[in-house]
Amino acid sequence: MENRDFLIRLSGARTEILAQCPAERARFQGVGGAILTTSVLAGLSMAFALTTAVGLSVVLAVPAAVLWGLAILSLDRWLVASIPGSGPRRLRIALPRLLLALLLGFVISTPLVLQIFHSEIDAQIVEIQQREAESFAKVQQEGEVGKEVATLRASVTELQSVIDSNGEKVSDPAQDPKLKALTAELAEQQGLKDDYYREWQCQLYGGDGCAKPGNGPLAVDSKANYDKAKNRVDDLTTQIEDRKQQLTSTDAEARESRLAAAKEELPGVRNRLGVALERQADLQEAFDAQNHANNGLLIRLQALNEVSGKDATLNVARLLLFLLFLVIECLPVAVKLMQKEGSYERFARLDDEKRIREARSAQSAPARAPVTGGPPSVAPTRVRRGGRVADGPGADLLDLWERGPRHEYASAPTVVPVEDARETEVVDTQADGDPWPESEPRQDRGIWGIRARPSDREEQDDGEARDLFAEEELAATGDRRAADSGGLRDGKAERPPQSGGHPVFELFPEDE
Q: In the chain, what percentage of residues exceed pLDDT 90?
């Protein structure tokens, strides 16, 4: 029983209302069970996501998963409780809540699907990481560091071969690193030489962007820059020719020169190669660490997409599981929308209306007119309205009047003596004191005016409310006189008798 009551509390139902309609308990137990199921799945989903994608330990993941499950439980409970049982606004209110439930379903179902296919996903992640490693190695070879390493390795090999041959080996000028450096510098200086020459000519003879033509200070500066670049070009050209001669000559002097140059250059080239290799190793180590640690949610989703794209059967199974968890997560809202209005909703509406009437009566009671028509000393101690009896001081007359029909009347009650001196009849009157004509149709009359006649549904609701309130009052006081006089028949309270559409109160002394 306690477990069932717990499910009812999860559904958001009001237990005091549900106690009056026990047949509705099973319906709200089902709603509470759906909410509990979604919250448990949400907690499991968060635990899987934190342990596999984020890499948290179980000790840290479990409390976070419990908190997430409680949050989803509270949210689903609010979504279900905020959807009205009926009415034209029901679908409009439920639509955004249904969309929110779908969003939560997408978020919660994804980690569950990933956990089910974790073995296939892990195998695909290895392939993805291998592809990434091969791609990085290719970038390393074609990148700046890779090219530098390749050039330095070729230089070390070439210099070592010259040393091993005692200078006999003739080097290829196109592969000589020193010759390559001289050639690159020559191309740069040749470009500067050409620029300075055009600038010098512009200063001498005029042109776009030049000042007054002539051999002035600007022309002299341009000529000096040109001469400097020209001398550097000539010097580099000489060095290149000498280097080529040194590399290709076979005489004894050339051999000795090659051998001495190789011995001098080899240590420096090896040092540069070592530095370049260290840089390359650092980059590779950083990539390997990042690639190995790349086991999060994104790569797992990528792996799931790739492996499901290769296998149609796995793709169908993945889709069905995803839809299953999605439907389960949307189940509380869906169950609420599929249910029709029952007795619980009607009792809840009547209870709300009762509370509203009591609040309005409490607010308007000081402004009501006092009960008149009899001396103060004649205060009835028992009031009967139709089949309903109330004990208390004379002020209970007004209280019973206010707690009567839901539709209040146009004026305060007037106490009028009847033939039997031991009873008093209370008749509703208009503002001028005349009884309401019996020929006029009964209308819903409020304290401040006359409103339209209530609908049949409102009259039915009023009757149910009065029956319920009469049973509660009789059970509380233990007074069964109303039942003996016909107020209760077969355990149900009859509606008070009407006289020409006017409610009648009968007052009699306590000794009756």
A: 4
